[in-house]
Design goal:
By secondary structure, the protein is an alpha+beta fold. The protein has a single domain (about 15-155), classed as GIY-YIG endonuclease. Helices cover about 50% and strands about 15% of the residues. The protein contains 7 helices and 4 strands, in the order αβαββααααβα. The protein has a 4-stranded antiparallel beta sheet with strand order 1-4-2-3. Strand 2 (about 55-60) and strand 3 (about 60-70) form a beta hairpin. The mean pLDDT is about 85.
């Protein structure tokens, strides 16, 4: 059993002030995101700004996935480009459908699944078609630290089912 330890953050008052500021900013951004209108995937892929920010995929009126990007328009397009490196949300959906687990070996890798697993390839292609039918909300956020925190806050507040912040 691991023992817990106390981490010394130095001046905790300063850290508390910084964190409180980020939390306040994130809550304001969340309110703005919630008020914004969702747009079709087709419209998003052509009209989203080439700016950094956070986006939310909706299935009907239910938010299901939050992501962040350096370039919102480019990232949204990547989700349906059908490549092993770009279509991460489609891979997640296909893995959920087929039960295929994440591996860190050649066998079972994204490239391997697309080339050699017909059941997975079919589920992947169907996932891309599902994503094309979804709507998207987005919010431009320039600050990287705020973006990371905002993505996490959105996944909690919106209860997105496909965001997992864990490592293997």
């Amino acid at each position: 059993m691991m023992s817990s330890s106390v981490i010394d953050f130095g001046d905790s008052v300063e850290l508390g002030t910084k964190f409180s500021g980020i939390l306040k900013d994130a809550r304001q951004h969340l309110a703005a995101l919630k008020k914004g209108a969702a747009v079709s995937f087709e419209r998003a892929r052509n009209e989203l700004p080439n700016s950094p920010g956070v986006y939310v995929f909706f299935q009907g009126d239910r938010p299901i996935y939050v992501g962040r990007a350096r370039d919102l328009r480019k990232r949204i397009r990547q989700h349906v480009n059908g490549t092993a490196s770009g279509s991460t949300f489609a891979f997640l959906l296909a893995r959920n459908t087929t039960g295929r687990k994440v591996t860190y070996t050649t066998v079972g890798s994204r490239t391997d699944l697309l080339r050699n697993d017909l059941e997975f390839k079919k589920a992947f292609d169907e996932s891309i078609q599902k994503i094309l039918q979804m709507t998207i909300k987005f919010h431009v956020i320039e600050d990287d630290n705020l973006q990371y925190f905002f993505e996490f806050l959105c996944s909690l507040e919106l209860e997105t089912e496909h965001n997992k912040f864990r490592t293997t």
